[in-house]
């Protein structure tokens, strides 16, 4: 089972919860989308992914979409401090088997994991999912991202961050011509013709932080 979260303490807490339920399970961890992709490649037998919504290298539900495209039979439980009804609803619409708030108790986490592993889907214990779901455009973009290779996904993510081709080439240690070839394929899969259109398309997967999480308490 794989726990993907960029916060070491919470990642460790999730691993402890899983270890209590499945003491014989092999546990893997990732602190970024790049590490997630490496773990997916190394361990094709992963049986469950617990995925943080705000992972370095991801935009909203992009990492969820990519993972489901490459491991369609592996359930994903999305975990986030952002448990806004719209966020929960969109996560389920984009294929998450369940959604857990980071404030959930251990018993709620254990119950959700057990039920997902038993085949149940659409779980969101103690949370409200009665909100507008994912748009048709975002679902189409998710399907496109699901077909990207790991390297194409990294290029697309850096594109959204505003990096130029030569900057992406430097970060990935490849030739600029290689990045241009990836861009051509990314545009084709997204059904767009420019960098701006690609950024706007991927932006449909973004998640805004609710006001009560964005501002520190008075």
TrEMBL record:
Instruction: Provide the GO biological process annotations.
Output: phosphorelay signal transduction system; regulation of DNA-templated transcription
Identify the residues that the record assigns to the HTH luxR-type domain, covering every copy. Answer: 141-206
A Pfam family this protein belongs to?
Answer: Response_reg
**4-aspartylphosphate modified-residue sites:** 52
Task: Recite the UniProt keywords alphabetically.
Answer: DNA-binding, Phosphoprotein
What start-end ranges are recorded for coiled-coil regions in this protein?
Answer: none
Q: Which GO terms describe its molecular function?
A: DNA binding
Q: Does the keyword NAD apply?
A: no
The Response regulatory domain is annotated at 1-117
Instruction: Recall the taxonomic lineage recorded for the source organism.
Output: Bacteria, Pseudomonadati, Pseudomonadota, Gammaproteobacteria, Cellvibrionales
Q: Which InterPro entries match?
A: CheY-like_superfamily, EvgA-like, NreC/VraR/RcsB-like_REC, Sig_transdc_resp-reg_C-effctor, Sig_transdc_resp-reg_receiver, Tscrpt_reg_LuxR_C
The protein, known as: DNA-binding response regulator
The species this protein belongs to is Pseudohalioglobus lutimaris
